[in-house]
Amino acid sequence: MVSRRWVIKTLSCLACAIPISGLASTLHAQAKVSKEQAAYQDKPKGDQSCSNCAHFVPPRACAVVAGDISPDGWSKYWAAKK
Q1: Count of alpha carbons within 13 angstroms of residue 43, beta-carbon side
Q2: Which residue has the higher pLDDT, 14 or 79?
Q3: Is 41 in the same domain as 75?
């Protein structure tokens, strides 16, 4: 037999979990910074370019910077691939 206490506790947990899951996806979507904030440029800085950066996601994306990213670009978040 299911107790009333168990039902209330379970429903309370579910009521809290639903908004939290939505918040997590919203925060993840907002995690990228703008090109301006990243000091992004369409040309490499020396031997540092997006194509050899740990954050680059082929063919034209970045895990840190929002928008269309050139493989030949550069930003202040450049990090060497390991």
Answers
A1: 2
A2: 79
A3: yes
